[in-house]
Amino acid sequence: MSRISPFKAFLEENTPDYKPYEEFYKHLHANPELSWGEVETSAAIATRLGGLSPDLQITTGIAGTGLIAVLRNGPGRTVLLRADMDALPVKELTGLEYASKKMAEDSDGSLQPVMHACGHDMHVTALLAAAETLILGRTQWSGTLVCLFQPAEEAGEGAQRMIEDGLYTKHGCPIPDVLLGQHVSFRKAGFTDTRPGLLMAGVDSMKITVYGRGGHASMPHLSVDPTVLASHIVVRLQTIVSREVKPGSLAVVTVTGLHSGKAINVISDHALIELSIRSVDSENRDALINAIKRIALAECSASDSPRDPTFELVSSIPAMHNDPATTDVINRSFSAHFGLQTHNPSCDVVPAAEDFSHLATAIGKPYCFWFFGGHDISDWEKRAEENRLDSVPGLHSPLFAPAIQPTLATGAEALVVAALTMLSGDKNGFEAQG
């Protein structure tokens, strides 16, 4: 049986006033920025970090908008805490007083509404609050703390680009002994969960261009309509998981975009299909991609397409595998601090993907990633009583809106508890023993 949380006294002594952080969160939420455009967000973070301690070594401009803050606090382990910063091209419908009304150009130059529909504003704020807590209590731990703020997680490129830009070389980030990250979820606020080993699926983003023969909308018999062709492909793709994947295996093939034509009276000469493909191992990944290509080629042949389709793999993120030993230690600390009723040490594998692991695998270091709930407690309980939990707005929904508290406190405490556990072990009494 775990003893009473050894972290309680530390947090009671060193946790800052959360009110300024709540206001900072509202500011971030109302002013979201798309991947690679996190200029104002990065500047706001740097300013806030600069006010925490003169001993923080802050490096900005990593892969554009990425930044790190390093606190060297004596001998010991080096622990990296990560938060992502970017938002999504989603129109916010929450009705909050601090709801986003921002518009921005996407990578194609199109003007889009922008929203923090994935909670990255909460990730940033929780890490800043955790950093201040650890700085205030620095006499009680020893080691090196690295706080990393990453751009373009939604694009699946941010972590890798920071590495390629010299994160661990020219930008001077100390090589961490362990890397820690988290993600707010649409679960009940105050709850945390993770699991050792496989935690999240890998994702491949693909674009398929199919070709027809354009013409007048009044004379389809003289054309090869790529919109009809693409529609057949979209429908047929739905059979891959249901008919070609072993039941019980985690696999997802989702068509996220179908674009064809710009004039209402013109049959286009091509159509674009955008796909999100999720799998948990290389064998299933290869099988999914091969099936997609086979179906697209066959449908193009059946429609008498003038040329074969083209396939573009836009991005690829591997499945996330938490280090078992690291996760075991953090699970014990979380269970001791948050309680066995609110921490789940063996959650289900999540079909969503994250590029956080690149930061660790690039240097061969262990990592642990976890989730913390964000949905309003009373609303969750009401929906549960009415058997309507499936109506809780999920990530990437225009209605996604974490309750600021206790979500922020839970996220900040989780980072502090995990950091103290890995920085000091049981040397200073911070590791919760089973």
UniProtKB/TrEMBL annotation:
SUPFAM superfamilies cross-referenced by the UniProt entry: Bacterial exopeptidase dimerisation domain (SSF55031), Zn-dependent exopeptidases (SSF53187)
Domain of life of the source: Eukaryota
Domain Peptidase M20 dimerisation: 202-299
Binding sites annotated in the UniProt record for Mn(2+): C118, H120, E154, H183, H396
Cofactor: Mn(2+)
Keyword Manganese among UniProt keywords: yes
Single GO molecular function: hydrolase activity
Cofactor note: The Mn(2+) ion enhances activity.
InterPro entries: Amidohydrolase, Bact_exopeptidase_dim_dom, Peptidase_M20, Peptidase_M20_dimer
Gene3D superfamilies the UniProt entry points to: 3.30.70.360, Zn peptidases
UniProt keyword terms in alphabetical order: Hydrolase, Manganese, Metal-binding
Family to which this protein belongs: Belongs to the peptidase M20A family. Belongs to the peptidase M20 family.
Protein name: Peptidase M20 dimerisation domain-containing protein
Protein source organism: Hypocrea virens (strain Gv29-8 / FGSC 10586)
